[in-house]
Design a protein that fits this description.
By secondary structure, the protein is mainly alpha-helical. It has 4 helices and no strands. The two termini are 23 Å apart. It binds zinc ion. Zinc ion (ZN) binds next to loops.
Length: 134
């Protein structure tokens, strides 16, 4: 049985290896250190999973990012429009502000989702790695 400390959702939210959940995907944990935003480790130090399975792999993450962005913008616009009767200028300014401030987080979550779509979590491997203290 999966807990909240493991699995694909855990790896997406915590930027961990999607296969074993034990190693970090990025060289710098903070997505707001923009110079290291896309710097990923080549492989998982625990299970050896490649974090870029093929050249250009993360181009597909743009589709995920687009979907998340549009969904988020729609939700914010709906709340502001129907909940607060906001003007178009307020809607536009708020959405742009949220998008600009949230871009680094969205960028990483999109990559994490894209990688987790192709690499499945292996609880048996994780248990084995933890038992061996690798
Ligand atoms: Zn791993």
């Amino acid at each position: 049985m999966l807990s909240l400390k493991e699995g694909s959702l855990f790896s997406i939210l915590h930027s961990k290896c999607p296969k074993c959940n034990l190693d970090k995907l990025y060289e710098d944990n903070n997505p707001y250190h923009l110079s290291k935003l896309g710097s990923m480790h080549k492989n998982c130090a625990r299970c050896g999973q490649k974090f870029e399975p093929e050249t250009g792999f993360y181009y597909g993450a743009m589709y995920v990012s687009y979907g998340l962005s549009v969904g988020l913008m729609f939700i914010v616009a709906a709340i502001l429009y129907w909940g607060f009767d906001a003007s178009f200028a307020v809607l536009l300014t708020t959405i742009l502000g949220i998008y600009i401030l949230g871009f680094p987080l969205l960028f990483r979550i999109s990559r994490n989702i894209w990688l987790a779509m192709f690499v499945k979590y292996n609880p048996t491997l994780r248990a084995e790695l933890e038992r061996q203290h690798i």
